Amino acid sequence: MIVSALPIVLVDFAGSVAMIILSFQCTRMARELNRRTPNHLMWTYLLWVSYFLAGFAVSRSAGHILKQILLFTGHLDAWEIIRPFSGGINTFLLIIVASITLFFGRAWQVYREIMNDRIAIQNAHRELLDLNENLERRVQERTEALALSEKQIAQADKLASIGQLASGIAHEINNPLGIILGYTQLLLRSEPPDTQKAEDLRIIEKHVKSCKAIVADLLNFARSSKPKNENVDIHDIIEDVLVFVTHQAGASSVEFVREYDRSAPPLFIEEKKIKQVLINLVMNAQHASGNKGVIRIATLHDAAAAQLLIRVRDTGYGIEKKHLSRIFDPFFTTKPTGEGTGLGLAVSYGIVKSHGGTISVESEPGRGTEFTVMLPTMTRQKDLAP
């Protein structure tokens, strides 16, 4: 009878030992996981369960081994006394495991709720940061727009007051200049061309014509008549300007690069006035480039904003930062004495404003200058301010 039960006893012994070994292995792995991530609720739960399951494995295996020993030694009565205590310990350990599972199950629900709240708070924080950034950007944009509006108003007031003064001066000077030029030309007709007197008269004629050109600029600057608009293709105007400037420049080695947005609709503008603006910009770019380099003329149609951008960029030295704020002021020029009146950009500014547009400049010494003209692309503009 004892021999026939031996395989069962051996299996019971081996199972008990294997249970102890495996339970301790599980406990070791749970401790390692908990050590790596000490604040993780799941690993803490597994560690506690592993501790009490290991205790249960030791208690149950010890009970089974003790039982087999007592049976083999014939002390069955002693086992009957010990068995309730062994079973009680096993039951107690299982109750603890079940309690730990229930406790951590509830704790896991609370943990999940806390994590969800944490995620919601993080999302709300990100949204607040985005809203704050968006608000700061809008405030900055509005501040810049307000500063630009104030600058434009100040510029308009300055142009209006100087325009009135320029108009009076120009009219007073224009008549005497006309008389001087007329008598000078009459004297030239009656004077042999190779005499010193003729040379002196030609010098007088040259400088009187220069003065009349300045007076003409003053009158153009002072005039505030409403534009006589018509629908025209801006690219045709640009091509006419480039042909004119090329003929004026003669043997200039400036290269003109065209970057046209052909989707641009016709503009309702006064062709002559806008052509005058573009001539000023292109000739200024040519002067800044020293009659060499590249002048880039680009157009960009912004359908959403209903506007057309015209950019004229040169490869010259650029404009000093201290001069940028005065670049559209009347009579301000960075050209040498005798090479500019300082009215070209001021006149251009007034023309563009009268068309409901804007003109701006970006420049960095050593990297060239870019002027940008913005004109509205509405088909008709009956109420534009002069």
Description:
The structure is a single chain. The chain has 386 residues and is an alpha+beta fold. It folds into 2 domains: 2-125; 227-386, Heat Shock Protein 90, CATH 3.30.565.10. Helix content is 67%, strand content 12%. The protein is built from 8 helices and 7 strands; from the N terminus they run H-H-H-H-E-H-E-E-H-E-E-H-H-E-E. The chain has helices spanning 2-36, 41-73, 76-189, 196-222, 234-249, 271-288, 321-324, 344-354, and strands at 230-232, 253-259, 267-269, 292-302, 307-313, 358-363, 369-376. The strands form 2 sheets. The chain has a 5-stranded mixed sheet. Strands 1-3 form a two-stranded antiparallel sheet. Strand 4 and strand 5 form a beta hairpin. Helix 2 (41-73) runs antiparallel to helix 3, helix 3 crosses helix 4 and helix 5 crosses helix 6. The longest helix has 114 residues, at 76-189. It is rod-shaped, with a radius of gyration of 47 Å. Mean pLDDT is 77; it is low at 380-386.
E-strand count: 7
Q: Give the overall shape, derived from the CA principal axes.
A: rod-shaped
State the CATH topology of the largest domain: Heat Shock Protein 90
Distance between the termini: 124 Å
Biggest beta sheet attributes: 5 strands, mixed
Q: What is the SS-derived class?
A: alpha+beta
CATH A-level architecture of the largest domain:
2-Layer Sandwich
